[in-house]
TrEMBL record:
The keyword rRNA-binding does not apply. Belongs to the HAD-like hydrolase superfamily. SerB family. Keywords: Amino-acid biosynthesis, Hydrolase, Magnesium, Metal-binding, Serine biosynthesis. The active site is at residues 79, 81. It comes from Massilia cavernae. This is Phosphoserine phosphatase.
Length: 281
């Protein structure tokens, strides 16, 4: 196995100290704040010890099979809210209605897997009834930011020939704008109903829940002529688990515990571009 150690605050001393726990056959520098330890004799005990030590230094420790590279994949599929972008759009829309605490509480419970996603989305959207649709533009312009390393990650995966998919339980208002802004190949999300310039509190058509996210990843892979095992899927919430489960590599980004525990790899401190070190040549 290889062990990739990285973090925005990683120092050479701390990297070396944690690497020593793994007793690697050799160490490859991946940049100022990242190294790859090769020829590691993997065990669950070692994984737990290294991850604990790394966490205390705000570093990510990723064990991965030797030889896995970005070029082995054909698609990067991403969740939107709290993954590709830093916010939960529906919470920020609700803030325009003075209802952010109530909506955010439901969002958090749904992302932890404590509530059915479809039901929770309907409940949250219903609270937005009567809100001027201009609030959506304000959220996009004033509050939406790309997560750390997101643009660098996308530039690299596109340069490597991979296609990109943004699949979200959020809303097309945001995914379509991000598609144009970031040059994404495919986007899929929920449609908010707007009548006479106001939100009706309803979603048009089917809801993009966990099952629909999985189906979308599988459909896009089929259209590309690749297996779902050639997809990298990145997410943070319980509704991402099904699509992460069919992927060849699942990446938990700033994820809820239920997701962190089931993902192939996790980025708790590094940006989205931490993926590039994990799959570096």
């Amino acid at each position: 196995m290889n062990l990739v150690l990285q973090g925005p605050d990683a120092s050479p001393d701390n990297l070396a100290r944690i690497a020593a726990l793994a007793a690697p056959a050799r160490i490859v520098e991946l940049g100022e704040r990242a190294i790859r330890c090769e020829g590691v004799d993997y065990s669950l005990e070692l994984k737990q010890a290294v991850e604990l030590a790394a966490h205390t230094q705000r570093m990510d420790a990723t064990f991965i099979e030797a030889g896995r590279r970005l070029k082995d994949f054909g698609l990067v599929a991403m969740d939107m809210d709290s993954t590709l972008i830093t916010i939960e759009c529906i919470d920020e829309i609700a803030d325009m209605q003075g209802l952010k605490p109530q909506v955010a509480e439901i969002t958090e419970a749904a992302m932890r897997g404590e509530l059915d996603f479809s039901d929770s989305l309907k409940r949250r959207v219903a609270l937005l009834e009567g809100l001027d649709a201009g609030a959506l533009g304000r959220v996009y312009d004033e509050r939406l930011q790309i997560s750390m390393g997101g643009e660098a990650m996308l530039d690299a995966v596109k340069a490597a020939g991979l296609k990109t998919l943004l699949v979200s339980g959020g809303f097309t208002f945001f995914t379509e704008r991000l598609q144009k802004r970031l040059g994404l190949d495919v986007v899929h999300a929920n449609v908010l109903e707007i009548v006479d310039g106001k939100l009706t509190g309803r979603v048009v058509g089917g809801i993009v829940d966990a099952e629909e996210k999985k189906r979308t990843v599988e459909r896009v892979c089929a259209e590309l002529g690749i297996s779902a095992k050639q997809a990298i899927v990145m997410g943070d919430g319980a509704n991402d688990l099904k699509m992460m489960g069919v992927a060849g590599l699942s990446v938990a980004f700033r994820a809820k515990p239920v997701v962190y525990q089931q993902a192939s790899v996790a980025l708790n401190f590094s940006g989205l571009d931490g993926l590039l070190n994990i799959l570096a040549e």
